From TrEMBL:
Listed name of the protein: Transcriptional regulator, MarR family
GO biological process, one term: response to stress
Pfam families per record: MarR
InterPro entries in UniProt: ArsR-like_HTH, HTH_MarR-typ, MarR/SlyA-like, WH-like_DNA-bd_sf, WH_DNA-bd_sf
CDD domains found in the cross-reference section: HTH_ARSR
Ranges for domain HTH marR-type: 1-110
Length: 110
């Protein structure tokens, strides 16, 4: 089990070094790219299976990195919607897992 955690840690470190984002941030970016409609933090939390508080933290970090923007709902001004910026779209396009060395122990998972 320790080998799996070590392999996952190495993979995550290599991924973050290559793309300057974490795996959780990448999941949110991919979810936003695949969305066909307005996306709320609640929707992203459910889709990525991250806790609402962790999703909120990831959204704040992605916004600070200039990868996403938030906008107010036109019908309900209390509702926040999230969208990829041009830089965010570019970063999602760069996410090609074959560029990152996946440890042999983790290959069956991919």
């Amino acid at each position: 089990m320790r080998d799996v955690f070590k392999a996952m840690g190495n993979f995550e470190t290599a991924f973050e070094k290559m793309y300057q984002i974490t795996l959780n941030e990448a999941m949110i970016l991919c979810a936003l790219k695949e969305a066909s409609d307005k996306v709320t933090a609640t929707n992203l939390s459910k889709q990525t299976e991250l806790s609402p508080s962790h999703t909120s933290k990831m959204l704040r970090i992605l916004e600070e990195k200039g990868l996403i923007v938030r906008s107010l709902g036109s019908e309900d001004r209390r509702q926040m919607y999230f969208h990829l910026t041009q830089l965010g779209k570019q970063r999602v396009t760069e996410l090609e897992l074959d560029k990152v060395e996946i440890p042999d122990l983790l290959k069956p998972l991919f």
